[in-house]
Design a protein that fits this description.
The structure is a single chain. This protein is mostly beta strands. It is built from 1 helix and 8 strands; from the N terminus they run H-E-E-E-E-E-E-E-E. About 10% of the residues have low confidence. It is about 15% helix and about 50% strand.
Length: about 140
């Protein structure tokens, strides 16, 4: 009975340890653009990651939470310990105020899919409004 309990505890511990190790390690999971001007238009950041998995991983899909955010990524497999990139562009035009957008990344080893969520955030200051002429 003691051996069964010990085996069960060991199995649970190993399972938890296996789940805690990330499949990929990102340079950051949230990028803060800080305060930007609306007239800047498109602002871009690059999320880099390292494949921590024992097999090559391919980015299967990258979805932004809205149409104002555009992701681009490499389609080539990333070898174990290799690096990959996801470029994310946010369009500030006509979007004054604070923003937080999510980017859902699905990676695959060909058999199993892994989902990671990244974020961009910032504050867009509105462009100055041109004074209107008075009508007399």
């Amino acid at each position: 009975m003691k051996k069964l309990a010990l085996f069960s505890m060991l199995f649970v511990a190993l399972s938890v340890m296996a789940q805690e190790k990330p499949v990929v390690e990102f340079n950051e999971r949230t990028h803060d653009f800080g305060t930007v001007k609306e007239e800047e238009g498109k602002i871009t950041t690059v999320f880099t990651f390292t494949n921590q998995f024992l097999a090559p991983l391919t980015i299967k899909s990258v979805r932004a939470s809205c149409g104002c955010t555009t992701p681009n990524w490499s389609k080539e497999p990333v070898a174990p310990k290799g690096k990959g990139e996801i470029t994310v562009t946010y369009n500030t035009t006509n979007r004054p105020g604070s923003f937080t957008k999510s980017i859902t990344v699905v990676l695959t080893n060909g058999t199993e899919d892994f989902t990671e969520v990244l974020y961009i955030k910032g504050q867009v200051t509105p462009k100055a409004v041109a004074p209107t002429a008075e009508v007399k």
